[in-house]
Amino acid sequence: MSEPAESPGTRRIVTPSRVVVGLCLLAPFVAMLWVNSYARVEPTLIGIPFFYWYQMLWVLISTGLTAIAYKLVQREKRARKGGAAQ
Amino acid sequence: MTPYPATTPLAASATHGVNGVALAVFVFFFVAVTVMGFLAARWRKAEQSANLDEWGLGGRSFGTWVTWFLLGGDLYTAYTFVAVPAAIYAAGAAGFFAVPYTILVYPLIFTFLPRLWSVSHKHGYVTTSDFVRGRFGSKGLSLAVALTGILATMPYIALQLVGIQAVLDVMGIGGGENTNWFVKDLPLLIAFAVLAAYTYSSGLRAPALIAFVKDGLIYLVIAVAIIYIPIKLGGFGEIFDAAGKAFAEPGPVPGKPRGALTSGPNAQWAYATLALGSALALFMYPHSITATLSSRSRNVIRRNTTILPLYSLMLGFLALLGFMAIKAGTEINGNPQLAIPQLFEDMFPSWFSGVAFAAIGIGALVPAAIMSIAAANLFTRNVYKDFLKPAATPEQEHKIAKLVSLLVKVGALVFVLTMDKTVAINFQLLGGIWILQTMPALVGGLFTRWFHRWALLTGWAVGMLYGTLAAYGVASPTQKHFGGSAAEIPGIGEIGYIGLTAIVLNLVVTVVLTFALKAVKAPEGVDETSPGDYTVDAGDEGVSPDLPPVTSKAPADS
């Protein structure tokens, strides 16, 4: 449902950093919707079944990925403002 | 250990008597927050206050931190504290879909909402309907979006009221099954009245200010709960052992175990579709949009998506409380919604139970306030002004918005009083089925003008009809209709979230009809936006300047 690579409005140039942004935003969908990949009890972590701690670990991973995406978008915006006349 | 009694209440001791200390602490926080609500009207007051923009969006002057708290207010609700742990308590893994749901919501916000912020600030849109009308030049479509938003918000508010009621029940002032309906629901009605009163007088500023208190309380309670309770119960190993055994026993559905510790092969479609569907729905609710448009720049929205997920982590820990309630043998009298409040009462000293109950209660009030304001905005702008009284003055709009925010809450009360409260999570899922049907117009519209307005309207109608009928047809052990939100997906044969099936159907109809309408050259309507409008930021030409810069300490690079 989310095709982040589409987001730039006027300038539709696929830059490497935009591809990375897209992948960062897409990864949680693949990981979380593929339920069978984590539907098991072992290995447990401090007694918590894998099913639960793995998904909670993904909260941190996806936060990190979104932060990377944010930084990349910011950097690109600054570069654009600095480069061409707005 | 207490197997989950689906139909037969355990014992006659429905209430354990009134817990005086807990009640006093609860009332103290409740009153303090109410006073704050009234004072909030004076907080950062802008020059003019009697118009919708001011009341509904707090003057749109909120920066990162206030917005963070506001958005957090949407996530930390009775849904998190009562409904999700209750679902886990009742069935195990199936209820944990709330965690992937709140993970997926942020990439979606990151992608979609900055565009909505830009176009809204460029054209002065306050609601999604404003945008849809401007984009597609269709009043009918705008009306459909507005009515859907209002309808979908009601069960979500109802969920909050159920949460408050669970707390009151456990404190012993809710009354049992035998008391007459008025006494039984009196505390609920009082809570409802207080909420209505301060929302009415303070608008969005009230929940924003209260959110600070609320979040402080909530963090405290969560920290204590997830450290103290597992230690007291002998560690997570013991907790999950007990839960595993409990889930293996026969459950409310004859011939099937009560639940499972992990998502079984037959439950995975439901798990994934519930997570995805809920994530897609969340940011389209009028109240999420209100909070987003309140932020100061489009940058703030994206930055928020990098810090808000921390809320999800705590949601995960709270969900685990459902397992702890099983291990602790919490008595729920046939209503899983009571599991967490009752667990708190059993585990904590009375005064801290009071704090915890206050956190849950206020945590339900704040979002309920935000939601009803957002629904009121929708009605005023897109039903009252567009259809009933186009010449309304700002003062009249203001008045109507306040009145409707009351009516929406009454609508929610109707949901609470008529639907089965033992599976509260269904309230939210039912709202999701409806709000999802506005997605092609809203999200589609943010990226493309290809869809035809009449096709969108027809697709919406088909999705709404299918979704409502399918949900109506779901029976549960406790009720005949609206007993759940998952049903067989036609053509695939797996059980999945009805909302997601409906949106696929909606999209197919929309696409096919768009081709047809374009072929016969049906009038497209006027698009008042231009491609550049979707990427402008605060400070660009034509973007409505914000009201005074915030008092909050926004990070340096803003």
TrEMBL record, chain A:
Domain of life: Bacteria
Keyword flag Transmembrane helix: yes
Keywords annotated in UniProt: Membrane, Transmembrane, Transmembrane helix
Signal peptide: none
InterPro entries hit by this protein: DUF3311 (IPR021741)
Keyword Transmembrane carried by entry: yes
Residues annotated as transmembrane: 20-39, 51-73
Protein name: DUF3311 domain-containing protein
Annotated organism of origin: Streptomyces piniterrae
Upper taxonomic lineage: Bacteria, Bacillati, Actinomycetota, Actinomycetes, Kitasatosporales
From TrEMBL, chain B:
UniProt cross-references to PROSITE patterns, sorted A to Z: NA_SOLUT_SYMP_3 (PS50283)
Chief site of localization: membrane
Bilayer topology term: Multi-pass membrane protein
CDD domains named among the record's database cross-references: SLC5sbd
Keyword Kinase: no
Residue ranges of the region described as Disordered: 525-558
Residues passing through the membrane, by range: 20-41, 62-82, 88-113, 141-161, 181-200, 212-231, 268-285, 306-326, 351-379, 400-419, 425-447, 454-475, 495-517
InterPro entries assigned: Na/Glc_symporter_sf, Na/solute_symporter, Sodium:Solute_Symporter
An MF annotation (GO) of this entry: transmembrane transporter activity
One of the record's GO cellular component terms: plasma membrane
Pfam families given in the database record: SSF (PF00474)
Gene3D superfamilies (alphabetical): Sodium/glucose cotransporter
Compartment(s): Membrane
Keywords from the UniProt entry: Membrane, Transmembrane, Transmembrane helix, Transport
PANTHER family: MONOCARBOXYLIC ACID PERMEASE (PTHR48086:SF8), SODIUM/PROLINE SYMPORTER-RELATED (PTHR48086)
NCBIfam families, alphabetized: monocarbox_MctP (NF046076)
Similarity field: Belongs to the sodium:solute symporter (SSF) (TC 2.A.21) family.
Name recorded for this polypeptide: Sodium:solute symporter family protein
Organism: Streptomyces piniterrae
